[in-house]
Design brief:
Chain lengths: 324, 272
């Protein structure tokens, strides 16, 4: 048995500058945040971030200047901060390229990557400016010349349905990230991934990537996961590194483990309004702690305990969420 | 069945009105696709009042949840409680494309007289003055659901002659690669399923002439004048089919909304 267990530092060293990367989760749920913090500490740069949807983790990477290309459909913090200030600032500086697709487009692009096919047809989002040829930003930047095998030579293409004569289909190109970083509730020693609750677009993201790093709340015996294989998402041979790291998704939430730390995200989203605010936040919460353990110590036991999910409900019953 | 007891002016908030008006768009038994926020209030209220057999799909991948704790976003564990299936985006977006979704609620930053919506960027797209979160599923859902209902704030700068960027397709849309304006039915052809059916704002309910592809005023909320509505719109409004005032919320609807749907006050402001 190949032992894939390693430290977070070792796992993040597998990511190279300029890599195309993607992540597990949905907006503010099950994002591998501890990995994002460590990527910043290791000074990763030039990343090509491609995601079905983006969230708090992506604002952090973009704000820190680690991302040169962002391809996705949405970025924000849901209820805790709707404006992507960091992306807005980098666009105004001209230091990032943002390529817009729709949710379904990105999902099908990732699915095509996972299926090993070069593109996927869809009917979605016709009549929108996403398909405006003037707004193909990678083309405008001269990057669709075939020199980078992660960048398709076209943003999308049209074809007539050749089988049922149903009209013009949009083809969206596969995404093939170098690395997918995943947060899972459980992983086996050999890498079998079990995700509880909604699986979002994790399966497509994991299977599209060349290398997969998993941060898990706990590493459990493979034999335990194999008692109920129908509950598992991905086999271990698709996984390259596993790191046992409780609370690795904080401040995003993880089904059955802990809720979103809304107050924390709201503070971060607010800090992003200015470059100075963002820098101060990062200095405190990323560079101001040595590692994940120090981060958790800084958050404190009582804060984390309040977020902990009730084992029946699968969410925290102790967090005050609204105005009442 | 007792007569409906309508609330009086001052007894409800704007959010109450939006949630109630949106809930009434659901017909019983429909499959409804919802995103975070007001759509959650609307569909959960509809399920408790006028459409008990409607089925709810959350964009992040849960189907027909029957939890009693309001999710704070579509990725929330609360979406999974008593769901029929907890799957993922690939499943629910495939169902959307398959034509299984009857109604969806959407929002937007800007809308034009054809129902085209912008949630991406204001100004020149290649060098935007403000960047919004982006499309999300808005364009997909608005392409592939049979009816969509937009919930928006009524402001002159948001209700425009033409939007800066078409994130989500209305009734007259761009046919690419030429970019010519064409009716949605011509662009979607055999895959035409429907389109925007209503826009509900803090001032009025709008509907669409589906042949002409243009928006018109259906009802105006009590206390709002035609002049005020026009002043808050960036194009000339069509009042020719205005039916009068929007039906007020009932005491029962507001009680359910505040006591059962959002008792924690996650999306609803406190009642003054």
């Amino acid at each position: 048995m190949q032992d894939k267990r390693c430290t977070l530092q070792e796992a993040i060293q597998m990511i190279n500058d300029n890599d195309m990367i993607t992540f597990s989760g949905f907006v503010i749920w099950r994002r591998p945040m501890a990995a994002i913090y460590e990527m910043l500490r290791q000074g990763k740069k030039g990343l090509h971030l491609v995601e079905v949807n983006s969230g708090t983790h992506a604002e952090l990477l973009i704000g820190a200047g680690a991302v040169s290309i962002w391809e996705s459909c949405w970025i924000g913090h849901e209820l805790y901060g709707k404006v992507p200030y960091c992306l807005d600032r980098k666009l105004k500086e001209g230091t990032i390229i943002a390529e817009d697709y729709s949710h379904q487009h990105m999902l099908y692009r990732m699915a095509a990557g996972a299926m090993g096919i070069p593109y996927m047809p869809t009917w979605a989002s016709r009549g929108t400016d996403i398909l405006n040829p003037e707004y193909d930003m990678l083309e405008r930047a001269g990057l669709r010349n075939g020199a980078n095998d992660k960048i398709p030579v076209k943003k999308f293409d049209y074809a007539q349905d050749p089988f049922y004569n149903e009209g013009e289909v949009i083809h969206v190109p596969a995404v093939r990230p170098n690395v997918c970083i995943v947060h899972a509730q459980q992983v086996g020693e050999e890498g079998t991934i079990r995700i509880s609750g909604q699986t979002y677009s994790d399966e497509q993201a994991i299977k599209a990537a060349d290398r997969v790093i998993v941060l898990a709340e706990e590493i459990v015996p493979e034999s335990y996961l194999r008692e109920e294989p129908e509950r598992n998402l991905v086999p271990g041979y698709l996984v390259d590194a596993i790191v046992e790291l409780p609370w690795a998704a904080h401040p995003t939430g993880a089904y059955g483990c802990y809720d979103v730390d809304g107050a924390f995200i709201r503070e971060f989203a607010s800090a992003c309004k200015t470059e100075e605010g963002f820098r101060a936040w990062v200095d405190e919460w990323v560079y101001g702690v040595r590692d994940h353990d120090e981060y958790l110590d800084k958050l404190g036991f009582s804060r984390l305990e309040k977020l902990r999910a009730n084992s029946y409900h699968k969410y925290s019953t102790k967090v005050k969420r609204g105005s009442r | 069945m007792t007569d409906k007891q309508y609330v009086k002016p001052g007894e409800y908030s704007v959010v109450d009105m939006l949630a109630v008006a949106a809930a009434r768009e659901v017909q019983d038994g429909e499959v409804v696709f919802a995103g975070t926020g007001l759509p959650m209030l609307a569909i959960m209220l509809a399920q408790k009042v006028n459409a008990p057999n409607s089925k709810l799909i959350y964009e992040a991948g849960t189907i027909d949840s029957r939890g009693d704790s309001l999710p704070s976003s579509v990725g929330d564990p609360r979406c999974v409680t008593q769901a029929s299936v907890a799957s993922g985006l690939f499943d629910v977006f495939n169902q959307l494309q398959r034509g299984k979704v009857d109604l969806a609620y959407l929002g937007g930053a800007e809308i034009d007289k054809y129902g085209n919506v912008n949630t991406t960027a204001v100004g020149d797209y290649t060098s935007p003055s403000v960047r919004f979160p982006g499309s999300g599923g808005n364009p997909d859902i608005n392409s592939l659901a049979k009816r969509t209902v937009f919930i928006m704030v009524q402001e002159k700068r948001r209700f425009k002659e033409s939007v800066d960027y078409i994130t989500s397709p209305g009734w007259m849309i761009r046919k690419w690669p030429e970019g010519t304006l064409a009716h949605r039915k011509d662009v979607y052809g055999k895959k035409f399923l429907g389109g925007p059916s209503a826009v509900i704002t803090n001032m009025a309910v709008f509907r669409f002439d589906e042949e002409a592809g243009t928006i018109y005023v259906d009802t105006i909320h009590p206390g709002i004048t035609r002049e005020q509505l026009q002043e808050n719109t960036g194009f000339e409004l069509d009042f020719t089919r205005c039916k009068g005032e929007t039906e007020l919320p009932t005491y029962e609807e507001l009680r359910i909304l505040h006591e059962n749907v959002d008792p924690e006050g996650i999306f609803l402001p406190a009642r003054g």
